[in-house]
Design a protein that fits this description.
This protein has 9 helices and no strands. The radius of gyration is 24 Å and the shape is elongated.
Length: 247
């Protein structure tokens, strides 16, 4: 009876991980195709910040699921205690990392306010200084999301303009409109933007733009996170039961 139970658990775990393996392989394949396809999706993805971010998330998730599924399948079908233990530890680390991220997000949620970001931007932003991580990150965000500052261009009134740059007004170059929203994108009219002509500037604040972009996906992301945590718990239970049952 015990042997039949162990055999059933082994094949259930193999089937469970085989589907994880297939899902990871599909995500990995689609992610690579979207990013490297020269005539298909690459231009669309590059023009849309959410799609651009999503493609790389898809790649990372696909690679992780592919590896997890492979380890789980091999460990179950070969009844290899070493692979099963490695599979269990891998999922446990991911589970703990996700749990830690959720706890930290809950603890520091009150810091992620419009006022907090505005204060930090005015205090640390150094315009086009690409050696400064804070400024470089903000420039990337503003270019990618076609936005300016936290609330709008007025956030930069307290930030001194660059020396030897007579064109530049208080609005930084990263707030200027581009034909394609990436660092390689051509400016619509850089000179007019830097001299303060509003129609060539991105006037909307990044806080509102990013919040609106992700608001639609908050509930979906929460449901998905709960589902993933549940799957990880079941996978760890299966792996440990099989590990203890193997002689």
């Amino acid at each position: 009876m015990e042997g039949d139970c162990l055999s059933c658990m082994k094949y259930l775990m193999f089937l469970f991980n085989f589907f994880i393996f297939l899902g990871g392989a599909c995500l990995l394949g689609v992610g690579i195709w979207v990013i490297v396809d020269p005539t298909g999706f690459r231009e669309i993805v590059a023009a849309n910040p959410l799609l651009f971010t999503g493609a790389y998330i898809m790649l990372a998730m696909g690679a992780m699921l592919f590896l997890l599924g492979f380890l789980g399948c091999c460990g179950a079908i070969r009844e290899n205690k070493c692979l099963l233990l490695f599979f269990f530890m891998f999922i446990l680390l991911i589970f703990l990392a996700e749990l830690s991220a959720a706890i930290l997000a809950f603890i520091f949620r009150e810091n992620l306010t419009r006022e907090f970001f505005t204060k930090e931007l005015k205090k640390h932003y150094l315009r086009n200084n690409e050696t400064d991580v804070f400024s470089s990150t903000w420039n990337s965000v503003m270019i990618t999301f076609a936005c300016c500052g936290v609330n709008g261009p007025e956030d930069f009134e307290a930030v001194p303009p660059l020396p030897h740059s007579p064109l530049e007004s208080t609005t930084p170059e990263a707030c200027c409109q581009r034909e394609l929203q990436s660092r390689e994108g051509v400016f619509v009219n850089r000179e007019a933007c830097l001299t303060g002509i509003e129609r060539f500037q991105n006037r909307q604040g990044c806080y509102t733009v990013i919040l609106n972009s992700f608001e639609t996906y908050v509930y979906l992301a929460g449901a998905l996170a709960i589902g993933v945590l549940a799957v990880e718990l079941f996978a760890m239970i299966f792996a440990m039961c099989l590990f203890r049952g193997i002689q």
